[in-house]
């Protein structure tokens, strides 16, 4: 069973009276334990595809299957639950809430489900902050952190519920080469240790050695690329 299957995803935007077909019948299967990258020119639809995979946007056509469950059969109301329990989203611009500390950002995202108690949840928060090297940020607000620290809090937040699929939209874009590579390494480690799956959109060719497969999105089509 695949961690995530995208089947025949089609999405267009209305541009005046013409349709701009951004995703033209795209299919993608990602195994558990697999880390894949999507490259492509600006405007090629990478964020659109990831947002659809993350169930933050609906496709015009096509279906998503997460760990064997077809999203076709889900009501839009149930999407929030699926997002919280099965998916971890890392946005390019981290999107932390300004009025919460690092610790509070993680607690807010934590669905109580994977934890048997508040104590267990709290110790997972501490563990994740330590793993990502940001224990010192626990009580800090975003405005007190550096760009790289904020990005790592966003990653910790995406990992807290032990998602089955991690979706990362240019997670390394705002970081220098070394920090960017560390972020990609952290995603890889999570994927390999927990046997989850990750799809990462990136422009950074220097981190492609960390992923298992590379695709290119061009003119509405997703093509497998040589590493
Ligand atoms: N809400 C929207 N309404 C209309 N057009 C949109 C909308 N969102 C995206 N588009 C268009 O869809 C195309 C794909 O956008 P998308 O953001 O997915 O590209 P991208 O590959 O992520 O680009 P980048 O590398 O610059 O982030 C673009 O031409 C964009 O203008
Ligand atoms: Mg984008």
From TrEMBL:
UniProt xrefs under SMART domains: AAA
Gene3D superfamilies: P-loop containing nucleotide triphosphate hydrolases (3.40.50.300)
SUPFAM superfamilies listed in its UniProt record: P-loop containing nucleoside triphosphate hydrolases
GO MF, one annotated term: ATP binding
Domain annotation ABC transporter: ranges: 4-227
Keywords: ATP-binding, Nucleotide-binding, Transport
Domain of life, per lineage: Bacteria
Pfam families: ABC_tran
GO cellular component terms attached to this protein's record: membrane protein complex
Family label: Belongs to the ABC transporter superfamily.
Protein name: ABC transporter ATP-binding protein
């Amino acid at each position: 069973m695949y961690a995530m299957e995208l089947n025949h995803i089609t999405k267009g935007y209305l541009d005046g009276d013409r349709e701009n077909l951004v995703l033209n019948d795209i299919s993608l299967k990602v195994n558990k334990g697999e880390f894949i990258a999507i490259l492509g020119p600006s405007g090629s639809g990478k964020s659109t595809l990831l947002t659809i995979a993350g169930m933050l946007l609906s496709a015009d056509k096509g279906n998503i299957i997460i760990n064997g469950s077809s999203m076709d059969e889900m009501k839009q109301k149930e999407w929030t639950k699926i997002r919280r329990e099965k998916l971890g989203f890392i946005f390019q611009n981290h999107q932390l809430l300004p009025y919460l500390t690092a610790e509070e950002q993680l607690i807010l995202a934590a669905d109580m489900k994977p934890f048997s108690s508040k104590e267990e949840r709290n110790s997972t928060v501490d563990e994740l902050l330590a793993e990502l090297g940001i224990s010192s940020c626990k009580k800090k607000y975003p405005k007190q952190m550096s760009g790289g620290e904020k990005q790592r809090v966003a990653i910790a937040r995406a990992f807290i519920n032990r998602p089955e699929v991690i979706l990362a939209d240019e997670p390394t874009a705002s970081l220098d080469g070394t920090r960017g590579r560390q972020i990609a390494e952290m995603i890889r480690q999570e994927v390999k240790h927990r046997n989850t799956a990750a799809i990462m959109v990136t422009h950074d060719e220097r981190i492609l050695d960390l992923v298992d497969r590379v695709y290119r999105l061009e003119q509405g089509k997703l093509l497998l690329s040589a590493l």
